[in-house]
Amino acid sequence: MLKAKHKTGLVFFPAFDWAIDPTHPEREERLLYTQDQVVEEGLLDIEGLVEFKPELVTTADVERVHFCLPDPQAVMTESHFISAGGAATIGRAVMEGAVNKGFALVRPPGHHAMRVVHGARGFCNVNIEAIMIELLRQAYNVDRVAIVDTDCHHGDGTQDIYWHDPDTLFISIHQDGRTLYPGSGFPNELGGPNAIGTTLNIPLPPHTSEEGFLYAIEHAVLPILEDFKPQLIINSAGQDNHFSDPITNMNFTAHGYAELTRMLNADIAVLEGGYAIEGALPYVNLGIILAMAGMDYSHVQEPSYDPDRLRQSASVTTTIAKICQLVRAYWDQRGAIAREVRAKPGCHERSRQIFYDTDGIHETQDETLALCEDCGGALRIDSRSDRGRRLLAVHIPRKACPRCESKAREWFEQADTKQFNLVALQDRTTDTYTVRSG
Amino acid sequence: MIVGLDVGGTHADVVLLGNAGVMNEVKVPTDPDDLFQTVLSALDQITADIDPHRIERMVMSTTLTTNAIIQRKLPAVGMIVAGGPGINPELYRTNEHYACIGGSIDHRGREVKPIEAAEVAAVREKFKAAGIRNVGVVTKFSTRNPAQELAIARHLEGAFDKIFLGHRISGNLSFPRRIVTTHLNAAVYPIHRQFFKAVQKTLLQKGWEVPIRILKADGGNTSFEASIDYPAQTIFSGPAASVMGSIAFGPENGEALVMDIGGTTTDMAVLINQVPLLDPLGVELGGHKTLIRALKTHSIGIGGDSAVRFEDGRLQVGPHRDGPALAHGGPTPTPTDALVIMGKTHRGDRDRAVQGFGTLAAAMGVSVESAAAEVFEHTCRLILAEADDMIARINRQPVYTVHEMQAGDKVAPTTILVLGGPAPLFAEKLESLSSCKVGVVPRWAVANAIGAALARTTCEVVLYADTEQQVAFAPEEDFQQTVERSFERQDARRMALDLLEGKAIERGANAEHLEMEITEDLEFNMVRGFATTGKNVRIRAQVKPGLIHDYDPVAGRLM
After folding, report:
1. Does B107 contact A278 at a Cβ distance shorter than 8 Å?
2. Is A6 a known active-site residue?
3. What CATH architecture is B78-187?
4. How much helix, strand and coil, in percent to the nearest 5, is found in chain B?
């Protein structure tokens, strides 16, 4: 009988009755053929592969991460509570030792959802990895976490949530933002002044193939992970780098995904994007599951695989080597860069425009951070949307120092509620979310 | 009149049902080395004074095929397997003559790599040279497109007695389970065929021209003729017989747990509104995971004759049986002895039981009477704990839609039905230890044979339609039809029910009283680019497992 080398948990929630709209890539059919492949391969009969039923996250779990306008129920459907719950179920199973590793094969995805949520962007409403991570931190006292986002699109939502958190290393590998949504994720995006270097971006040129991806993992991601020494490694496992994906331009393969999974050796993988639902997903998911379980994946190959057509050009190879070198240098010199950034006047403030492409919402944010040597720093966000909603969001980080804690309380208590639809305090030291309304 | 026969590991139970209910019941010891003789002697005894022409049918459940599988006494067969990309099919090897060949079909049934005739021919010659007579053929995704299994079969034609094709054996996905199930069918085929042919012949010699039905693991029966092509469906029918014998006594609106307490094991199953719960995948037997439709049962190694020990300060009951109870001449203390010592039953030699319990009681540091009470209570608690686990596992089963997640239906039995030899002795104690009402199934000792006699003819149809490729087909039925692009879910439902009706009647069902239902009903829009290119429809329909008593005059009087 077949046996998994590493006991691996799976949550499979294809949400066969949920879609953004009938012809949207994020629709009922997306995981249908993946399910067919998983069932036909008999994966769930393999000893050591365990399927779990997803739990539902609560609004408190969501408010540990997000500020939702007007509230979580308004921006989430039942399917979001389940898909975040699926990630949480896998997280708990890993933390409790029921399995060594786990993969949440769930939809809808979440990595474009930022800390403030006015609606859906990049098919995402809430950030399912972040909800899981904060839940695990709360329940199991996990401290240092690394997230490696291998979706083809920059994980700008996860980046935003952990921008100021020195205990969460976020590395995104994605197609160059000059050629793909959401247009961000450049190497110089390194995190806020209190957390320089724990955000890293590795943009890869279009037509990167297996060789290039695995090079970046080996030469940039793995050495940095080794330095950071996370207690947990999370893989935001988007599958849209595949050569057949309809909305991206990369040349990655099912075998390459399996190889990447083996090298990365993440504790938890969470499905993100991936829209080649017939030609890629069934094989990519099969490869990822086998690789996580420590089983042979050498026979996993998509029908349209043609190595000659997928060979990477010399210029792509050179570009990737340079980017990896640059990212390594940023990481190695993060202390010096942080000092430089913090010396600049106004570095604690930023203003930006955020577009919610899925829901067509424009948001403007003014952010103020308490510069701090001792913690992630109190954070204040004044957010307005073109739907006329205004929020004052105040965040106290998990390991806040007394100074930042009182600064944040002051922001919260002194806010003029008449100016805002919602004034909210997200206090991670007490795990509470408090609201004052206007 | 109907004869119901359930051959178990230790006894064969047989009943004769007539207009007045159970007209006769007999228990004969099973001779595991000669089941044929066991069956004949049971039939001889039950029909001793009966005019054979008055018997309408005979329903049998035997351990014949089950034993052959568990004892690994299977004849050599050949297996030809084509996997294509994925897990290496060599890892699913079932037997010595197992050949993996090229060829592959994808998840939508499109051919990716063809079968090579020369490769099949080479395997055919090798099998022939090895004296193989029956062959199983399985390709990955053959339930999406059987073309490659059929092509392989064509190359084997005339060279073997019988060829079993994976897609005809189950319409469900799971390549490894299809391999196992096809192999089991091919392997038990000669055993099954020979046995029932012999039974039929002997009965004919006695002048009995009685249709023989055979009980399946899903609690339904099938005609002997139909069973020849799917002999493995008859494995593991014993637990199903007991469940079918209990269902009339479960709550009409509610959930019940059935416990068949035997000598070696206790088998458990669940009834929901008097309908037994089916296993979503298929029966698991002796380490073989199959696609054989079966009731969801859970068997534990705790029964009346389980060996009781006291080790490291803890009582242990089972999972082994060293022989009969002390009171019946056995070697080790058992729960049955506890009942004898407690005076709950007067059958058996109490002195012998007391004597044998001496060492156990001494180790426990209590009197023999207290030890007996403790052993009995512990046994009941163990059984109930296993029952709780089974229910929890059922409730943990994943669902794949938001709707099902929201509905969140949980199984929570309020009634326990016990049957099997010591059933009445356990009932009271079980009730005092659980929050359920506990009832004893009437005629508890032969309820299994009654269940076999009264089970309906059941079957299932799986229909798959892909309107982009303009095809609808039901793999097990050898049915394939071109459909219009406008074909949709309700057309598929009608098609599945038509196929099911034909299949059920062919297998012996009463056409007037078919209780059919749709158990899976999925339709997906297939979108390519930004346009809908077709529909992908998956329908599953079944004859609900149940009793024939609603319309059968014989059965009607019984319950």
Report:
1. yes
2. no
3. 3-Layer(aba) Sandwich (3.40)
4. 40, 25, 35
Encode pLDDT of A107-137 as tens digits: 999 999 999 999 999 999 999 999 999 999 9
Please identify which residue in the block is written with the tokens 């030469």.
A219
Q: pLDDT class for B555, splitting at 50, 70, 90?
A: low
Q: Using CA atoms, how far apart are residues A273 and A182, in angstroms rounded to an integer?
A: 13
Q: What is the mean pLDDT of residues B475-492?
A: 94
The two domains B2-71+191-240 and B250-444 share their CATH topology (first three levels equal): yes
State the sign of the Cα–Cα–Cα–Cα dihedral A278, A280, A283, A288: negative
> Domain locations in chain B?
2-71+191-240, 78-187, 250-444, 460-543
Residue B287 exposed, middle or buried by CB count within 10 Å (0-12, 13-18, 19+): exposed
For the stretch B457-483, pLDDT in tens is 999 999 999 999 999 999 999 999 999
pLDDT at res. B415: 96
Q: Does A55 touch chain B (CB under 8 A)?
A: no
Can you tell me the distance from the alpha carbon of A176 to that of A178, in angstroms, rounded to the nearest whole number?
Answer: 5
Residue among A80, A111, A112, A153 flagged as catalytic:
A112
Strands, E, within B422-467: which ranges? Answer: 437-440, 460-466
Instruction: Pick the residue from chain B with its C-alpha nearest to A14.
Output: B400
User: Is A54 in Cβ contact with B405 (below 8 Å)?
Assistant: yes
Dist CA B61 CA B216 (whole Å): 8
Those residues with Cβ within 8 angstroms of residue B385's Cβ, 6 or more apart along the chain or in another chain: none
* Residue from B424, B436, B481, B462 nearest B170 by CA: B462
What 8-state DSSP symbol labels residue A220? I
CB contact under 8 A, A22 and B532: yes
Chain A environment of B85 (Cβ under 8 Å): 283, 299-303
Report all structural domains of chain A as residue ranges with CATH numbers, in order of start. 3-334 (3.40.800.20), 348-437 (no CATH)
User: Is the CATH code 3.30.420.40 the one for domain B250-444?
Assistant: yes
Cα-based distances in Å from B537 to A38, B259, B325, B488, B493 = 18, 38, 56, 7, 9
Measured between CB atoms, which of B86, B174, B398 is closest to A51? B398
Q: Which residue from B538, B508, B519 is spatially nearest to B460, judged by alpha carbons?
A: B519
Q: Cβ(B171)–Cβ(B474) under 8 Å?
A: yes
Distance, in angstroms, between A83 CA and closest chain B CA?
10
What is the CATH class of B2-71+191-240? alpha beta
B400–A35 CB contact, under 8 Å: yes
CB contact under 8 A, B399 and A53: yes
Residue A184 has φ and ψ, to the nearest 5°, of -125, -170
